[in-house]
Amino acid sequence: MRRCPFFLPAAALLPALGLLLLSGCARTTDTFKPRISVTSAVGVTREKSVLVDGTVLDDVGVTQVTVDGTPIPVLPGSRKLARFQFKTLIEGTQGKYTIKARDAAGNESTLVLPISVDTVKPTIQLTRFEKSGNVIRVAGVAGDNNGVAQVLVDGNRLNITPGPSVEFFAETTGIWADIVVVDTAGNQATLRAR
């Protein structure tokens, strides 16, 4: 017995061909989650109320930004690099803000921003003071509970490694040496060594 080749009628091929062509046009699913970053330097501050600046990066565009569940406005500009701002109101010495961003595809990201309030000035302990003619040499230890950021002697910033306890040495000229220590929150302590 001889078999004939099997052919589908043209009407049966059209839906399969249409499906094949449409699958080439199908959009890919957006799986890129928005990237939240805080651009203002916050973490430790002297104030209970500070302005927080940030951006959200997304490939299709940001539709919403919230802080602790409350929507905040996205500043004018591109939705792919959305800028936002909000003001803190910290009760006590610690605050924590949960920032969430959502894009047009429904993807969400979360960033938790802890902020500490530090109103305590750093300490300065002078360990050495020498005067030889017009030359003054000073050495000491600067300390702070949140970290020493800068040490200045007569307005000149010393090269230090920031931390909770920082040893310093400087040589200057004059009658005395004015030492200024600044902590990470911006609090200052001053000492005139003579």
UniProtKB/TrEMBL annotation:
Residues 1-28 form the signal peptide. It comes from the Bacteria. The keyword Signal applies. InterPro entries: Ig-like_fold. Gene3D superfamilies: Immunoglobulins. Keywords: Signal. This is Bacterial Ig domain-containing protein.
